[in-house]
Amino acid sequence: MKRLFSCLTEIAFIGFLFMRGIQSVPAAQIVRGPYLQIKTPTNCIVRWRTDAPTDSRAQFGITQTNLDRTAEMSGSRTDHELTLGGLSPYTAYFYSVGSSTNVFASGPEFRFVTAPIGSQSIRIWAIGDSGTPGSGVASVRDAYTNYTGSRYTDVWLMLGDNAYGASTDEQFDQAVFGMFPQMFRQTVLWPERGNDDIYSGYYDTFTLPQNAEAGGVASSNEYYFSFEQGNIHFVGLDSTGDVSTNGAMYRWLERDLSAASNQWLIAYWHHPPYSRGSHNSDIDPTQIAMRTNFVQLLERHGVDLVLCGHSHSYERSYLLHGHYGFSTNLQPSMILNNGSGREDGSGVYLKRSSGPLANKGAVYVVAGNASRPVGTGLLDHPAMFISLLEYGSVVIDVNANRLDALELRNDAIIRDYFTIVKEVPPALAIARSGTDVLLSWPASQTNYVLHSTTNLASPISWRTVTNVATNSGGQRTVRVPNLDSNRFFRLEN
Predict the structure, then answer these.
(1) Radius of gyration, CA atoms only, the chain
(2) Mind spelling out the 3-state secondary structure of the chain?
(3) Is the CB of residue 382 less than 8 Å from the CB of residue 335?
């Protein structure tokens, strides 16, 4: 009996130790993220990394207190990736991530807004050469966070050199995920790499649209891609790869731009076509190739804004078209508007909708100043309206036919700003007044001429209507005697 009691005691003690061992094993912890990737009107990808293998589970919903939908994946892994699907366009969602037994991250800061369908207000934040962790990039980040406040950031772009000298996971985490934890929780990052992005796991870390998951034409790789957000078509190019006109990227871009029909076209990559900062676009072969090859193609399809890094400075051009040579080859005719582009200055940059300048003109921005404003160079490229050597980032708001952009210095001072407005063809209103016809259109559209014809058979012979116009109530009106039973009218720029 005594021996039996002793055995039972030993068994109980072993069981106690076993249970204590189970209870003392800590739950897995997140060591990267969570971070958002590839957002569309109906889907968003969330990724995270844990220090120990677990299965994957994310919960999401339109209120933080009711995450009533679930995405999950069985099996164990440390790198987790789930698609949150069946979402509504332009709608805010909250989410949490974890395993089937634990929630690793949740709270009011874990939220995102899906992409809109059609024209909606879009805010874009662009940073270049941000890959040196420390107080410099932190000040750029904090300046933007304070500036945007509660205004959600719809699109986040990195312009290359996102992690200088990062050859290990730890170094990459410090330069990228460690510097922007809040942004990663709420806004999808669409990065392009630079010549100093040497981290071997770069493309394993990000999920980028290679199969037209977010619009555009499939590129079949993550090095270059396109995506759409609202009325904007974005093109991300890999200037560290093959930049020839017979390369795969160029051929893909031809197909992609030919299929695009969005109101705005924004392109971004690392090596700027125009710069006289720490890199000279008259000397650097890659910058020359991007200018002579890709700028021409983009301008043929009406590109509106080009964002680049590489030079550790901020440089912003006039409204340009047709400048594909060296800085000494710049002609006055290639500067479509040599003003500031500022509404309170010499006026906004206007892109015409018709006539010989229809859909021509783009602004080129160098924004390689997010962490390394150590640039040298004269900062005197003749295509540039302004050039600055300072920490900063670029903020862009697109609303319908208007694009507003600014350079936000790291002390939250706005150092440059400009506006591009796309001319909207005026609507021609026709009414009768007795036997006459009254034709009217917005008086602000002063560059339009009224034409008429009596026969629409080809070739059509349009004649200028020379009747005197009057301006009243914001409308420009022409009275035309109704001399013909059939008469057709049009406005032409």
Answers:
(1) 28
(2) CHHHHHHHHHHHHHHHHHHHHHHHCCCCCEEEEEEEEEECCCCEEEEEEEEEEEEEEEEEECECCECCEEEEEEEEEEEEEEEECCCCCCCEEEEEEECCCCEEECCCCCEEECCCCCCCCEEEEEECCCCCCCHHHHHHHHHHHHHHCCCCCCEEEECCCCCECCCCHHHHHHHHHCCCHHHHHHCCEEECCCCCECCCCHHHHCCCCCCCECECCCCCCCCCEEEEECCEEEEECCCCCCCCCCCHHHHHHHHHHHHCCCCEEEEECCCCCCCECCCECCCCHHHHHHHHHHHHHHHHCCCCEEEECCCCCEEEECEECCCCCCHHHCCHHHEEECCCCCCCCCCCEEECCCCCCCCCCEEEEEECCCCCCCCCCCCCCCCEEEEECCCEEEEEEEECCEEEEEEEECCCCEEEEEEEEECCCCCCEEEEECCEEEEEEECCCCCCEEEEECCCCCCCCCEECCCCEEEECCEEEEEEECCCCCCEEEEEC
(3) no
Among candidate residues 317, 416, 311, the one with its CA nearest the CA of residue 370: 311
pLDDT recorded at residue 1: 42
Give the residue among 309, 226, 222 at the shortest CA–CA distance from 265: 226
Query: Residues 325-344: pLDDT tens digits?
Result: 999 999 999 999 999 999 99
Q: Over the stretch 382-419, which tens digit does the pLDDT of each residue have?
A: 999 999 999 999 999 999 999 999 999 999 999 999 99
- Tell me the whole-structure pTM to 2 decimals: 0.87
